[in-house]
Design goal:
With 124 residues, this protein is an all-beta fold. It is 0% helix and 60% strand.
Length: 124
């Protein structure tokens, strides 16, 4: 079992900043990609940013230059620093982690887990 706990959402004015954090726990053997996605009302979930185990990053065009994704492999966390926020950034943000966990029989299995979501609202 792998659990993800997110924190850091809230209400912010346009132009403001927020930092989201996601911590993974459980019998994790290794973590590959980590990322953040978002879903606005009436829209499909979309990629915001991802970061590989080697630190390579990928961003949606709409957030490039404003958002920064980072990870701490030792702590099994992934953060999203969001600056210059716009009303169109309003959404529920979800973290996603992919890797391998060790089952009770010591076998390694792949996993892909989602956080519970955290609301980000950008409004004056």
């Amino acid at each position: 079992q792998v659990q993800l706990v997110e924190s850091g959402g809230g209400l912010v004015q346009p132009g403001g900043s927020l930092r989201l954090s996601c911590a993974a726990s459980g019998d994790i053997w290794s973590i590959n990609a980590m990322g953040w996605y978002r879903q606005a009302p009436g829209k499909q979930r979309e990629l915001v940013a991802t970061i590989s185990s080697g630190g390579s990053t990928n961003y949606a065009d709409s957030v490039k230059g404003r958002f920064t994704i980072s990870r701490d492999n030792a702590k099994k966390t992934v953060d999203l620093q969001m600056n210059s926020l716009k009303p169109e950034d309003t959404a529920v943000y979800y973290c996603n982690v992919e890797g391998r966990f060790r089952a009770s029989d010591a076998t390694l299995y792949p996993f892909g887990s989602w956080g519970q979501g955290t609301q980000v609202t950008v409004s004056s």
